[in-house]
Write a structure and sequence with these properties.
The protein is of the alpha+beta class. It has helices spanning about 1-25, 35-70, 85-115, 150-155, 250-275; strands at about 120-130, 130-135, 140-145, 180, 185-190, 195-200, 205-210, 215-220, 225-230, 245-250.
């Protein structure tokens, strides 16, 4: 009877630990679901795997601590006399393999989808520099640099008269945003002109290294209009922390109007510069 009570207490403790752990996971900091189909797939995969490993961790540690408490030396437990169990070895080998296979199937599908850049409706070339980005809209013949916004750059200087706390989106704003249309599959071609950079916008669900002499590919399909911020995610020099990314997602109609305005401004600039 006493042994049965001990097991009941152990199971109750395990259940409480599982509930508390899952509650902390559910209401605490987590990945953002993002605004693309791929980012949402990553979000679901992350939550699924996190749930599986949380349950496994709680079960393993509960069993371990329960065994430590129930079989401690002070209770004068007699040590077991067996050396090994073939059946137990098969079970504790087979179960982890099955769990890994079950988790690997959706993870592999997400990785395959990540590389599927075909059927893109437009292409954007992204080039990293120390310490800013250059964007080329290949179909529309638009090209510009995007650097840290002037107020953030001013506030970060020593002895500046502008405090960082007074700057909205400090170090996360730029002088020119990357404007993209929603509901459009966009392929990114990423490279660098000096050292390795990494282009990362969390709401898109991925990041890609921009490597000199190489071109990496990625894609996105933004489903919601809005402004999405990111940063360089690869240490690239002393001003690595000062090359943010800002993506402005607009409707297809607004995007075409923006393209027309950019092309008109470029034509006017070229005509004024002509002798």
């Amino acid at each position: 009877m006493k042994r049965a009570n001990e097991w009941i207490v152990g199971i109750a403790v395990m259940a409480v630990i599982m509930v508390i752990t899952w509650g902390i996971f559910a209401v605490g900091e987590n990945m953002r679901p993002g605004v693309t189909p791929f980012s949402q797939d990553v979000y679901v995969l992350h939550n699924t795997v996190m749930g599986v490993v949380t349950v496994i961790g709680v079960l393993v540690f509960t069993a371990m601590f329960t065994s430590i408490v129930l079989h401690r030396r002070s209770k004068h437990r007699d040590p077991a006399k067996f050396t090994h169990s073939t059946k137990a070895e098969i079970i504790w080998t087979a179960i982890p393999i099955l769990i890994l296979v079950v988790m690997a199937i959706p993870a592999t599908q997400v990785l395959i989808d990540m590389e599927e850049t075909g059927d893109a409706e437009m292409n954007v070339k992204v080039t990293g520099y120390q310490w800013l980005w250059k964007y080329d809209y290949l179909e529309d013949d638009i090209s510009f640099f995007s650097a840290l916004a002037r107020d953030s750059n001013r506030a970060r200087q020593m002895n500046s008269d502008l405090a960082p706390a007074d700057v909205e989106n400090y170090l996360l704003d730029v002088d020119r945003r990357l404007v993209l249309p929603v509901d459009t599959k966009i392929r990114f071609l990423l490279t660098a002109d000096d050292v390795i950079h990494s282009w990362w916008v969390p709401d898109l669900g991925w990041k890609r290294d921009a490597i000199p002499g190489m071109v990496n590919e990625a894609w996105t399909l933004i489903e919601e209009e809005g402004i999405y911020r990111g940063q360089c995610a690869e240490l690239c020099g002393k001003d690595h922390g000062f090359m943010p990314i800002v993506v402005e997602a607009v409707s297809k109609e607004d995007f075409r109007a923006w393209v027309a305005s950019q092309q008109a401004a470029s034509t006017a600039s070229n005509q004024s510069a002509a002798p």
